[in-house]
Write a structure and sequence with these properties.
- The chain contains two helices and no strands.
- By secondary structure, the chain is an all-alpha fold.
- The longest helix has 42 residues.
- The radius of gyration is 31 Å and the shape is rod-shaped.
Amino acid sequence: MLKFIKNFRKDEAGAVTVDWVVLTAAVVGLSAAAYTSIKSGATTLTGNVETYMEGQNPNGAPAADSGTDSTQ
């Protein structure tokens, strides 16, 4: 039994697996943090583009809400 305990203590085969699990968890955590950052930036950019595009007129005439009075 003492020999088994000594061999078990010296065996490092499982240590590599533990290293990979920790490394994989770190990569997943960093990916989630990066996704959150990119998502918020993309949402803001999309809103800005939408606001800009709503103010554009594809016919080249001034937009209806530009403050000009077309009756004069």
